[in-house]
Amino acid sequence: MAKIIPVKNGTRKDVITKKASRLFREKGFTATSMRDIAEAIGIEAPSLYNHIVSKNELLQEICFRIANLFTTHITKVEQSSRRYHVKIELIIRFHIKMMLNESENVYISDHEWRHLPEPYLSNFKNQRRTYRARLSEIIRQGINNKEFKKIDPYVTVLTLLSAIGGIESWQRSKKSVDASTLEENMVKLLLEGLKNHPYPVSEIQKSKSTNN
Amino acid sequence: MAKIIPVKNGTRKDVITKKASRLFREKGFTATSMRDIAEAIGIEAPSLYNHIVSKNELLQEICFRIANLFTTHITKVEQSSRRYHVKIELIIRFHIKMMLNESENVYISDHEWRHLPEPYLSNFKNQRRTYRARLSEIIRQGINNKEFKKIDPYVTVLTLLSAIGGIESWQRSKKSVDASTLEENMVKLLLEGLKNHPYPVSEIQKSKSTNN
DNA sequence: CCTACCGATCGGTAGG
DNA sequence: CCTACCGATCGGTAGG
Fold first, then answer.
1. pLDDT tens, B151-202?
2. CA geometry: angle at B117 spanning B116 and B120, to 5°?
3. Which range of residues forms the domain containing residue B38?
4. 20 to 30 A Cα–Cα from B69, which one of A97, A206, B61, B201?
5. Structural domain tally of chain B?
6. Which nucleotides along chain C are within 7 A of a protein C-beta?
7. Same structural domain, B38 and B61
8. pLDDT in tens, B128-159
């Protein structure tokens, strides 16, 4: 009765988590039933509970595992002695690589976290807020250091993260773009939009095209 | 018995749609029950069906209304005789304004469309694919015309759309940034990352910071 | 890992 | 707009 989870090299539960990830991304967490997951594996729904505690546990493990990967990475970047634009480039490239290698779980972490039950929900939101603040701080310092143009650091963080976080949902329908093309082009667009060019290029083409 | 919908100046059904939008964005379409919507209005769930056909109908109307607004706008832009970078700027600003003025419905159209039932689902996906192709074409022409740097048009479209589409989910927690700051900073970052600068600035800072 | 089954909740209908 | 109620499905448990 007492949830004897096999302590092996991590097998049965991993299979469940993998299938669950796939389905959570495809149909959404709420729209995915335990019976869907069980069927994808080839067992009956109640059998899942020999390996997991609850449906929520699956979501928690996905969300926090991804969040911790990002937190670990930014810590490493902060501790390095690179220039600020290099730090931002490293972080942008890490985000893109995460989207490419862990797209299902990153997508879930980005879009399904609101279904976390309450102690975890606040926890997760805190972790995200802190991450964004640390990223903002790097951009702020880069502006002070004249590496970046004068731009609102918080808006920049929002824009960068959502730009990268969104590629997954597009990528699904067409894998027409290979990983390297995607990464280099996104870096070109985002990083060079951020960098400080030593000439007032930003004012040149500012026409009266403002209103829609 | 026959769904006599009041043809008035659009009142009761609008209230339902409004409340539904709010809840669909907050909790997600699947996690929102008809009883949730009814309770938010102050009536019983079955009473909703005097004004609407089904829960799916609510989602359909939201998704297609938003999609049509974007389609109408890009048609107008295409028919104008502006330069390509102005066309892109107009479209970026329209997207940002939509996020700010219709954030709930744009969010639903962006994230909950996969729950559309089948004749509508394919329809919606087609409309989105076409929109992206038309946007790509403007960028491609702008590159040919030397207004934009050499960049993959499709990746650029994905990046621009997801950058703007993501601001909503961030904006929720902190309304610290006012609309004008948000718009000007996003345009600065995204449009200037795209524009062709008449000097090889993009190569200057390209260090060996590639691998994470 | 299964069968049998639980209370809760779902979208929606009947009928007034 | 309500009460009464439907068949279906949900996450999960009991017990082996």
1. 999 999 999 999 999 877 666 655 667 888 888 988 888 888 788 765 444 3
2. 75
3. 12-48
4. A206
5. 2
6. 1-5, 9-15
7. no
8. 999 999 999 999 999 999 999 999 999 999 99
Question: DSSP letters of A139-153?
Answer: HHHHHHTTSB-S--H
The residues near B112 (Cβ < 8 Å, ≥ 6 apart) are: B24, B28, B29, B59, B63
Closest nucleotide to residue B31 (Cα to C1')?
C10
- Please give the structure tokens belonging to residue B28: 């997600």
B49 CA → C15 C1’, Å: 14
Q: Which residues of A touch B89 (CB under 8 A)?
A: 209
Q: Are B151 and A189 in contact (CB under 8 A)?
A: yes
With beta carbons under 8 A apart, name residues in chain B contacting A171: 158
In total, the C-beta contacts within 8 angstroms joining chain A to chain B are 163
B151 plus B174 within the same structural domain: yes
- Give the tens place of pLDDT for each residue, A35-67: 999 999 999 999 999 999 999 999 999 999 999
This prediction's pTM: 0.86
Taken in order A171, A162, B70, B81, is the CA torsion positive or negative?
negative
